[in-house]
Amino acid sequence: MRRPSDHRDGTPAERVPDELVERCKNGDERAWSQLVEATYRDVYTLCLRILTDPNDAAEATQDAYLKAWRGLGSFRGDALFETWLYRVASNSALSKYRSRKRRQSRESGLQDDVLTEIPASGSVEATAGARIEVQALEAALARLPEQHRTVIVLRDVYGMSIEEVADKLGISETAAKVRVHRARKRLKDMLFQGEDR
Amino acid sequence: MKCDEVREVLPAYSHDGDVGLPVRRHLSRCPDCTSELALYEAMFGSLASLKTHAVEPPPELFHQLAAIPYRSNRIEVARTHVVRNKNKYATGVAVATVGAVGAALWRARRARTATA
Known about the structure:
The structure holds two protein chains of two kinds. Chain A is mainly alpha-helical.
């Protein structure tokens, strides 16, 4: 089930209090549980949008939180904790994406994977119109080739800069710009096929 | 500017607003390209709204994540133990290797003697 968050900037519904992060840094396992509870749906969703496979997304989420736990000491609070966590999570998801890609290339020689759709789920909270829109969009995103879906998710859903997208994907900024451009055109065509002139 | 040229820059214009005057001028008098721009605007609005719709994770995931400090600490304890006792472990491995090689040689020699 989807849970609409309150924030419009992509951070989880409620901001993680600094005090909670500090307690986690000091090894407080109870505080860690609270921090996980406050953030794991959004982190899982980010991973799922990149990977589309629920099992892969769950594994990437676990990897992200393991890295977050180990790397908490390096979080200095310059950015929001959620932003830092999103970066860690997108790195984990992309790492999983790359290893899946390598495995698929070895096994079948295919460039793109067989896409699985994000499981459709109802939203009792959302309005009827919004529900249709979100489902149609998620279905279209799931049908995009992985390379295109990844850049759309990072750039247009989570608002990362071109520099950051390029860095995460290990490509040049020019290549990232071109990929984003093509992905946007393709997604638009998929969404509005009947309305194109 | 021609419609084809304008449509090439519409995604960037719709998202970042970074185009020059000729594109804006074209849009002001081309209803088709303006409609195309509206499609991109709708798409970007919907994409941004995805951030606010979390998908419910598998039920067991929370417990797995919450247990990370405990699991991580156990791994850490094991790692520390191995690092602190690495000389003993190295000696153990060396003795086991020498023993295994010795046993193999002894068996080979015995087999040769038996055939002779």
